[in-house]
Write a structure and sequence with these properties.
5 strands, 54% helix, elongated, alpha+beta
Length: 202
């Protein structure tokens, strides 16, 4: 009878933890799915957190200045502006063309300005160009895309919540949540709580 009771207890115990392999499998696959998004959000978050460390205070764009010698130009302001854009292979729409002096002409475009000396033909091209990858990463992170991205971001957040919860339940025993895990979770929660307590808004 005793052996039968022990066997029954073991069988019951195995049934009670049969869900752990499923949790581990789903946790693993969900983690694979969000690797790309996690990389984007993490890299963008670091970049945005250190805006003052960028030379021009912008993590998405970097400033540049280039000088060209195109030769003397004549004609109306619009004609000169069009000729310069053609020679520099600029297709962006012109926002404004105005004279700074008899010889100097400024052409304003989106995130770009052309300072033209019609007499000498010197053109100074000043503007901003997107930083490789960071421009797109920040655009996605700050949710400046279409409304559809909101659903993607919400789904990503939900998967992260699942990963957090399932991670606490995957491993039984002393290395699981109810011993070592609880201590580590407590430490993780303590970081924002202590920061807000001692340095947060008042």
């Amino acid at each position: 009878m005793a052996d039968s009771a022990v066997a029954s207890t073991k069988a019951s115990s195995k049934k009670s933890i049969a869900w752990r392999p499923w949790i581990r499998a789903i946790h693993r696959d969900a983690g694979y799915i969000v690797v790309g998004l996690t990389f984007i959000y993490a890299l963008s978050g670091i970049a945005v957190n250190h805006l003052t460390d960028w030379s021009d205070g912008d993590a998405s764009f970097q400033s540049y200045t280039q000088t060209y010698e195109l030769g003397p130009m004549t004609g109306t302001d619009d004609e000169i502006a069009a000729r310069v854009k053609e020679k520099l292979h600029i297709t962006k729409e012109t926002r404004e063309v105005y004279r700074r002096s008899d010889d100097e002409l400024d052409v304003t475009l989106d995130k770009r300005s052309l300072h033209i000396n019609a007499k000498t033909g010197q053109v100074v091209d000043e503007g901003q160009k997107p930083r490789f990858f960071l421009r797109v990463a920040n655009w996605l992170h700050l949710n400046r895309g279409k409304k559809a991205w909101t659903y993607v971001a919400d789904t990503y957040a939900a998967i992260l919540l699942f990963l957090s919860l399932s991670g606490m339940l995957m491993i039984p025993g002393k290395r699981g949540f109810f011993f070592r895990g609880a201590i580590l979770v407590g430490l993780g929660i303590a970081v924002p709580v202590l920061y807000v307590t001692f340095s947060g808004p008042t």
